[in-house]
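Need residues for this backbone.
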């Protein structure tokens, strides 16, 4: 009979060819199979036999399925968010938008927030958590993604302030009736169609949330011209960008009559454009 320590070591060895974080992955998956926290596992509080489902979880990870989808959750800005293959996995890079928003709206808390392509609701819910008096709309064309976002809003006590609605910015008149907003957040698709991506991303995350034409700019070209009609006076719009896209996105914004600031992520790469 394999004990938990041995099972953990063997799983990490098997995952090494798939993951750069093999030991962490093994710890998370074993804790999940046991129904305990990773801390409990590491502190020796988990007891008993290796769960039979642990092997199935390891096989899923060997097949490059992202840990977040296997566990069904992903942390983002101190929120534990439900995720599924219907939504892009929230990433630490996207937290840059929330930090920029915090600084940009210092002393001017937004009353109305719009999240374009809300997915799991990560940006909208993080912003609503930051400003408890604010209300917001999460626009999303995928019904499955809207269900995830609504579930997350309810789980974090934000359902009364977060309205998740259907919308598709590739359709004419998509801004009709939305109104104007003090803060607009957007992490649109921005990956080039032929970009080299890790198998865990290309094979498992939703293509419609990733790819945006040969230059990765198609959705910026649709969205940015609409921003002046959606911003309230003195409003701020923040877009996540790929690290080589700042000049192209800035040019689109300037053509739309917007002022532009580019902000870097923690790795020092351009990650967010601030439009006003």
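Answer:
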């Amino acid at each position: 009979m394999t004990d938990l320590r041995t099972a953990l070591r063997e799983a990490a060895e098997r995952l090494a060819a798939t993951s750069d974080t093999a030991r962490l992955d093994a710890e998370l998956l074993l804790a999940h199979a046991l129904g305990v926290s990773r801390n409990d596992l590491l502190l020796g509080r988990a007891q008993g036999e290796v769960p039979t489902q642990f092997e199935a979880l390891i096989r899923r990870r060997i097949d490059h399925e992202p840990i977040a989808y296997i566990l069904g959750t992903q942390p983002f800005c101190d929120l534990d968010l439900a995720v599924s293959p219907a939504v892009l996995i929230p990433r630490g890079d996207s937290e840059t938008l929330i930090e920029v928003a915090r600084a940009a709206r210092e002393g001017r808390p937004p009353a109305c927030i719009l999240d374009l392509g809300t997915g799991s609701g990560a940006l909208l819910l993080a912003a609503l958590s930051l400003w408890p008096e604010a209300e917001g709309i999460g626009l999303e064309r995928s019904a499955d993604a809207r269900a995830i976002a609504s579930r997350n809003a309810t789980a974090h006590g934000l359902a009364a302030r977060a309205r998740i609605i259907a919308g598709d910015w590739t359709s004419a008149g998509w801004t009709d009736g939305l109104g104007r907003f003090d803060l607009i957040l957007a992490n649109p698709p921005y990956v080039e169609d032929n970009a080299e991506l890790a198998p865990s991303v290309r094979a498992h995350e939703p293509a419609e949330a990733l790819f945006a034409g040969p230059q990765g700019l198609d959705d910026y070209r649709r969205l940015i011209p609409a921003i002046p009609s959606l911003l309230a006076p003195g409003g701020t719009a923040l877009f996540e960008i790929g690290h080589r896209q700042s000049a192209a996105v800035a040019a689109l914004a300037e053509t739309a009559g917007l002022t532009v600031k580019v902000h870097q992520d923690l790795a020092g790469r351009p990650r967010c454009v601030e439009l006003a």
